[in-house]
Write a structure and sequence with these properties.
This protein has three helices and no strands. It is mostly helical.
């Protein structure tokens, strides 16, 4: 039974890692897409979308996209909000890894 639970836990960690990777890539891609759309005066990605992606684990990707594409870096809610979400997610991950 312990082997089954250990295998199951490893599977959950792999799936969780895959979801985090996907959400971070999505956040980075969306930031680049929105910058492109802004330059070409086309429809834009909603700000709410960036925060949803951030809250679902993509905050590092959104933040890196902000830095790489120099986009949304003057908006206070992004400058403070995305790193705050990242800190909260990191604290949760550390708690899951070491303190539970």
């Amino acid at each position: 039974m312990k082997k089954f639970l250990a295998l199951h836990e490893k599977t959950l960690w792999l799936i969780g890692g895959g979801v985090l990777l996907f959400m971070n890539l999505l956040g980075f891609f969306l930031m680049g897409l929105d910058k492109y759309k802004a330059k070409h005066e086309r429809w834009r990605v909603r700000e709410r979308t960036f925060f949803i992606v951030s809250a679902l684990g993509g905050s590092l990707g959104v933040w890196l996209g902000m830095q790489v594409f120099h986009h949304k870096t003057l908006h206070r809610k992004f400058v403070w909000g995305v790193p705050a979400i990242f800190i909260a997610e990191t604290a949760l991950l550390l708690w899951l890894l070491f303190l539970r």
